């Protein structure tokens, strides 16, 4: 059921999966301060929903996912307000990363600047093959900051340097080849491809999925040896929930029936 949170954010709850659409299609879904604040609060509220299984983030219309931060607003910033503005934008990405369930970026067009960082903050990305990607901040006299830090882990250092230092765009095929996008499809098939991943998540153990996301994020800052050691007690703790016993028992019962 679709719920209009505001003029700029649409929410659609689908059986434990929440879709959030940035709704400024006439402005390529760029993020201004008011939208950033509202989106951050929406994501923070979702984090408290124990029945939530996954979140999909997309842009309204078929031209743009998120076209970046609002250049019109940025043009009027001074050093103090610029720090507040970029902190608000970081707040959106942090709220995405703090969600305890998988967050999927449904990329249906332009994915630029802050939009590409927002996509990078998601757990994985599924894109239409006509999408465009880029980090054009240097073209308007600004460095790429905040969640641009995530890009080297996704596409490598050399490609990150090229994106950030040239401000050039890449097409969807290149983004897929570089590893930024996990799945690429025709625009008309985008929802069908995305739904397969969503369904796989929903069919998995809810506690296991939340635990897996927590572990993967912890691996970003741990050495391999420390990460491996940290997983062993978590594996044992999983059996305190009863979820493995129920799901393993179900699997064996189905197997026994042939």
Notes on the structure:
By secondary structure, this protein is α/β, with parallel strands linked by helices. It folds into two domains: 201 residues, 2-enoyl-CoA Hydratase, Chain A, domain 1, CATH 3.90.226.10; 51 residues. Helix content is 48%, strand content 18%. The protein is built from eleven helices and eleven strands. The longest helix is centred in the middle third of the chain and has 20 residues. The two termini are 38 Å apart.
Task: List the SSEs and their pairings.
Blueprint: E1 2-4, E2 9-14, E3 17-22, H1 33-46, E4 54-59, E5 64-66, H2 71-74, H3 79-98, E6 103-107, E7 110-112, H4 114-121, E8 124-128, E9 132-134, H5 151-155, H6 157-166, E10 169-171, H7 172-178, E11 183-185, H8 190-202, H9 206-219, H10 224-238, H11 243-256
Helix pairs in contact: 1-3, 3-4, 9-10
Structure summary:
The chain has helices at residues 33-46, 71-74, 79-98, 114-121, 151-155, 157-166, 172-178, 190-202, 206-219, 224-238, 243-256; strands spanning 2-4, 9-14, 17-22, 54-59, 64-66, 103-107, 110-112, 124-128, 132-134, 169-171, 183-185. The protein has 258 residues and is α/β, with parallel strands linked by helices.
Highlighted features:
258 residues; alpha/beta; 2-enoyl-CoA Hydratase, Chain A, domain 1; seven-stranded mixed β-sheet; four-stranded mixed β-sheet; 11 helices
CATH superfamily of the largest domain: 2-enoyl-CoA Hydratase, Chain A, domain 1
CATH class of the largest domain: Alpha Beta
CATH architecture title of the largest domain: Alpha-Beta Complex
- CATH topology of the largest domain, by name, is 2-enoyl-CoA Hydratase, Chain A, domain 1
Instruction: Please give the order of strands in the largest beta sheet.
Output: 1-2-3-4-6-8-11
Number of separate domains: 2
């Amino acid at each position: 059921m679709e719920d209009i949170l505001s003029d700029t954010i649409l929410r659609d709850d689908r059986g434990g999966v929440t879709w959030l659409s940035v709704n400024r299609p006439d402005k390529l879904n760029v993020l201004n301060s008011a939208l950033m604040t509202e989106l951050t609060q929406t994501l923070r509220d979702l984090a408290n929903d124990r029945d939530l299984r996954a979140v999909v983030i997309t842009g309204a219309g078929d031209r743009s996912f998120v076209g970046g931060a609002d250049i019109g607003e940025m043009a009027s910033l001074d050093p103090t307000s610029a720090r507040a503005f970029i902190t608000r934008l970081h707040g959106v990405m942090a709220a995405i990363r703090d969600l305890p369930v998988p967050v999927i970026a449904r990329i249906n067009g332009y994915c630029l600047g802050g939009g590409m960082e927002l996509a990078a903050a998601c757990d994985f990305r599924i894109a239409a093959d006509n999408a465009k990607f880029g980090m054009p901040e240097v073209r308007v006299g600004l460095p790429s900051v905040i969640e641009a830090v995530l890009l080297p882990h996704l596409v490598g250092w050399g490609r990150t340097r090229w994106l950030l230092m040239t401000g050039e765009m890449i097409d969807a095929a290149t983004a897929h080849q570089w590893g930024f996008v996990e799945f690429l499809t025709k625009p008309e098939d985008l929802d069908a491809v995305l739904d397969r991943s969503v369904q796989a998540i929903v069919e998995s153990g809810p506690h296991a999925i939340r635990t897996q996301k927590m572990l993967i994020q912890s691996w970003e800052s741990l050495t391999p040896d420390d990460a491996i050691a940290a997983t062993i007690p978590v594996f044992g703790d999983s059996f305190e929930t009863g979820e493995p016993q129920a799901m393993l028992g179900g699997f064996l019962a189905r197997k026994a029936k042939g």
